[in-house]
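Researcher: I'd like a candidate sequence for this fold, 320 residues long. If you have to choose between options at a position, lean toward the conservative one.
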C-alpha cells in the first residue's frame, strides 16, 4: 500500500519488480538489522539528508511497519523532504520515487514504485509505501533479503520531473479546396527525354510536382510508364521532419471509368522527397490504339496525368 493523503493508491498504480541496477539517489546498508526488528522502542530509522535537485531528502525505514499508515506486519519505506528547503521554494514539489531492497539470492534489487507522481508540500513532507514487504518474508533469511549475518540494504531513486521545454504539434489536413491537379504532356509518343516534370502546384501548404518517365525509369525501362509525386525542390524540410501524404495518382482515359489509378500512402522527408510507381502501367496498354489513353485512335497524342491529394500532414515545432 502507498500513502497518498487520506486515500489509498489503487493496486494497479503500484509497480513491483526486480532490476540489476543499483539505486541512483541513495543507498542505506544496515547490519544486524534483526536487532531493530526486535526492538520495542525503534519506530523508524532516518538516513542523513541527500540532495536531489534543489532539495534535501531523507530515506525513512520503518522496520516493523508504519502503524499509523496501515503498515502493521510489513516493512514500510518513505522519503521525506527537508522542510526548510521546501519553505524556501514556496511551492509544491513533484517527485517520482522508486524504492529498493537488495535480494542476495537473485543478486538483484526488489523495487516498488507508483505510476503516479508524488506531491510534497508544507502540509505533506513524507511519501512512500506502508506495505513494501510482509515481515514474515523479510525475516526469513531463505528469501534473500537478510543476508551475510543479518545485513539488509535499502535504496531510493528520487526524480523531479521538469516541464518540457520542446514540443511539436502533428496535424493531418484533408478535404482540400482544390485537391486535384492535372498535367497534360503533348506529343507524348515523340517525347525525346527520359523524364519530365510538371510545373509546381500547391496543395496543403506545400509545393509539389508530378514526374513522368515516358519509357519507364531504370527499374521499368521499356516495359512500363513510371509516375511519381515529388515535393518541389524549393520546399524546405527539416532534417527530422516527416510529412504524411495520401494521394491518388491517375493516368486519365477518354472514358473516365477506364482511368488507371494507384494509391500513394507514404511519408516524405529530407531524404525521401519523391514517391510513386515505377510500374504504373504497361507501355503496351498505354500505347494501344484502342486503349483511349493518348486521346484515342485519332486523338491528339497527349497523356493526361492527375493527382488527387487526400491527406497531407504538417508539424509545428516549439520553439521553431
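Model: Candidate sequence:
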Amino acid at each position: 500500500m502507498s500513502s497518498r493523503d487520506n486515500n489509498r493508491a489503487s493496486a494497479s498504480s503500484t509497480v513491483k519488480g526486480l532490476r540489476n541496477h543499483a539505486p541512483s539517489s541513495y543507498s542505506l546498508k544496515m547490519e544486524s538489522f534483526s536487532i531493530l526488528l526486535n526492538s520495542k522502542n525503534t519506530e523508524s530509522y532516518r538516513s542523513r539528508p541527500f540532495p536531489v535537485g534543489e532539495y534535501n531528502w531523507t530515506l525513512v525505514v520503518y522496520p516493523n511497519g508504519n502503524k499509523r499508515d496501515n503498515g502493521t506486519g510489513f516493512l514500510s519505506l518513505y522519503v521525506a523532504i527537508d522542510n526548510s528547503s521546501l519553505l524556501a521554494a514556496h511551492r509544491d514539489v513533484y517527485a517520482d520515487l522508486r524504492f529498493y531492497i537488495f535480494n542476495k539470492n537473485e543478486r538483484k534489487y526488489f523495487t516498488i514504485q507508483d505510476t503516479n507522481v508524488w506531491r510534497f508540500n508544507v502540509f505533506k513532507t513524507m511519501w512512500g509505501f506502508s506495505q513494501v514487504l510482509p515481515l514474515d518474508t523479510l525475516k526469513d533469511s531463505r528469501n534473500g533479503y537478510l543476508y551475510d549475518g543479518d545485513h539488509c540494504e535499502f535504496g531510493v531513486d528520487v526524480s523531479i520531473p521538469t516541464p518540457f521545454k520542446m514540443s511539436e504539434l502533428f496535424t493531418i489536413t484533408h478535404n482540400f479546396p482544390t485537391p486535384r491537379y492535372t498535367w497534360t504532356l503533348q506529343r507524348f509518343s515523340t517525347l525525346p527525354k527520359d523524364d519530365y516534370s510538371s510545373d509546381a502546384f500547391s496543395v496543403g501548404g506545400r509545393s509539389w510536382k508530378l514526374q513522368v518517365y515516358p519509357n519507364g525509369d531504370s527499374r521499368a525501362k521499356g516495359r512500363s510508364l513510371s509516375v511519381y509525386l515529388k515535393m518541389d525542390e524549393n520546399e524546405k524540410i527539416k532534417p527530422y521532419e516527416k510529412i504524411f501524404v495520401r494521394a491518388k495518382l491517375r493516368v486519365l482515359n477518354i472514358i473516365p471509368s477506364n482511368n488507371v489509378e494507384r494509391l500513394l500512402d507514404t511519408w516524405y522527408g529530407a531524404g525521401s522527397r519523391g514517391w510513386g510507381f515505377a510500374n504504373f502501367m504497361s507501355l503496351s496498354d498505354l500505347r494501344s490504339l484502342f486503349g483511349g489513353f493518348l486521346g484515342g485512335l485519332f486523338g491528339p497524342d497527349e497523356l493526361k496525368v492527375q493527382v488527387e491529394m487526400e491527406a497531407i500532414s504538417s508539424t509545428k515545432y516549439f520553439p521553431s
